[in-house]
Amino acid sequence: MAVQQVVPLRYNDPRALDKELKMLFGDGNYAVDFEMGQFILTAPRQLTENEIAHIKSKQRHYKRRSNRGNEVLKVLDVVTMESWR
């Protein structure tokens, strides 16, 4: 019998989540719905705390993206300053 579980993930990459769930449950043995900002897993069993921690460790975080954004802003600042000269 399948069980449902709210999986506490933020900023999730759906492909990474799918890859980890396929490794745990096999292809087609689970479903994930996204409702009101929460991932709801339907699977043969609930994920353990260790499994959730492992899945979280595989996720990309905004910190990485925002560093790239800061680099772009620095370049834009330089371009803007040079255009005012």
From TrEMBL:
Name of this protein: Uncharacterized protein
